[in-house]
Amino acid sequence: MMSLPLLLLATVAGLLALAFWWLRPILQSMAAELAATPQRTREVTPGLADPDCGIGIALMASAADGGGGSAPAKPKRKKPTGPDRRQFLRNAWLASWGGVAGAFGLSALGFIWPRLGGGFGAVINLGSVDTVLGQIADGGGRLEYPAGRLYMVAYDASKDSDGVYAELNGESPAMAIYQKCVHLGCRVPWCETSKWFECPCHGSRYNRWGEYQFGPAPRGLDRFPTEVRDGNIFVNTGQVVTGPTRTTQALGEPAAGPNCNG
Ligand code: FES
Question: What's the gap in Å between 210 CA and the centre of ligand 1?
């Protein structure tokens, strides 16, 4: 089945193709009109009246008449050349709408592009299980992955006796936690001393598994589904899973030291 980003990309490409197909005859007609516009050249023979000038025409007519004093011929009104003004305005209007549609298409493409490139919204391959667990240990208890707006923490299924996170993590020994605070959306940093996630905006605190500990947050941090495939850990950042309730304490781990936001 086609994924959402590819579906959006195909839709944008289809709209652009449709806009181009729709505007092509108009652009062709504009080009043809411009090409058909005659260059105005004025050739004036020295000593003779200008044939483009109404007075000149009258004088020539008078000369052809023998200068006999008859009434001068009325100069003929010239038919305007070049593109018709109404048609030109219509084409310009359509061309501007074509520009707007093109800009919209490019913006939409820019919006979904990170999802195709492994950023937030994509299924991200973080590397082998051993590599990820090693990086979590090196990070003092968490691995930060800014492009996916997530933290990885070690997940021990034996501590999750009720299986609260079992379905979310599958066979993965690491759990993915969304960095966005569930109170009002600030990015929640890691506190090195407490080994908790502590929000600097209004003081919410979450333990290493992102479970609620303190502050105005209504629940634990949201998270992403994780799975192990071919020995690598994949995180689906296109699917945000609502965090556990305030009372969920599967980890039950107190702060390792002083809090950072207190
Ligand atoms: S946004 Fe984090 S506590 Fe308010």
Answer: 14
For ligand 1, the distance from its centroid to the CA atom of residue 56, given in whole angstroms, is 85
Least confident of 44-58, 200-214, 231-245: 44-58
Nearest residue (by CA) to ligand 1, atom 1, is 184
Lowest mean pLDDT among 9-18, 135-144, 248-257: 9-18
> Residue 2: what pLDDT?
47
Q: Whose CA is nearest to atom 3 of ligand 1?
A: 202
pLDDT at 194: 96
Q: Which residues lie with the beta carbon below 6 Å from any ligand 1 atom?
A: 181, 183-186, 199, 201-204, 215-217
**Confidence bin at 41 (pLDDT 50/70/90):** very low
- What is the architecture, at CATH level 2, of domain 123-236? 3-layer Sandwich (2.102)
**What are the b/e assignments for 51-88, b being 16+ CB within 10 Å?**
eeeeeebbbbebeeeeeeeeeeeeeeeeeeeebeeeee
